[in-house]
Design goal:
By secondary structure, this protein is of the alpha+beta class. It folds into two domains: 172 residues, Probable tRNA modification gtpase trme, domain 1 (Gyrase A, domain 2), CATH 3.30.1360; 63 residues, Beta Barrel (Elongation Factor Tu (Ef-tu), domain 3). It contains six helices and 17 strands. A hairpin with a 5-residue loop joins strand 14 and strand 15. The longest helix has 15 residues. It is globular, with a radius of gyration of 19 Å. The mean pLDDT is 96.
Amino acid sequence: MNIKNVYILEDRGILFVNGLDAKEFLQNLVTNDINKVDNSNSCFASLLTPQGKFLFDFLIVKHKSGYFIDCEKKQADNLFKKLNIYKLRSKVEIMNLSNEFVIATFSYEKFMSFKEAKDILGYTFKYREDPIILDPRHKKLGGRLIINLEKLYLSLKKLDLKSTEPNEYYKFSHELGIPQRDMDKLSDKLFGIECNFEELNGIDFKKGCYVGQENTSRIKLRNKLSKRLLPIQLIKGNLEEGASILNNENEVGKVLINNNQPFGLIKYLSKHFNYKAEFRSKNAIFKIKKPDWI
């Protein structure tokens, strides 16, 4: 990513969880440890089904007396509804601020150019009262600014950043092997740990109970992880969601996300799987990439 480029991610949403019980409320639900989140540290986390299947992923950022939830915008309403289901009698207020706040992301090099910055995943500081975060998943994803829409363009001008087509950012994320678009297509189709959330610093195996913790820990402790969500590099044709991924006549996975940055759930330990091979599905030929951080 160019140091002067900024990508305004209008397809990201912001929820705000506030109230006396906000910290305990989130701690009992999400896969990461909320105790690690403060004014100088943010985290990546997910919300799973009780069986440990993926539902939502998001970044959690401390803001005033509560927490920003940085999520995919088209999932924001469903995440809002799900959190309210779990709310019960908790002293918690949940607001959808997606029309008021926006996410702007820029390079790791630009993040490190701030005098307040530290080369620590999730490190967070304030720029004129707005949080800037070094992406807790992978530092090559760069910095993220969460800012009120009314202040956005003046702040970008002061930061000497030029708005660039966000698809460039998402393409870069896909090359890293980190999915961020159409995550709803994964809902209840694979375990959270199969999304590589451990490697992306999204699961804390030392924290107490959370929704889906039992199966997540069992897969980890019994070394039962045999499938992973991996990026697809299309060579020819068109991918279809749900199509089998074949090596000759042997199925080694399924296409789950079939957009411009596609991903498949791959039986990566199968004797029929080889990262150097070309695979096919119903109407496509492609390769499967193993990210260097796995």
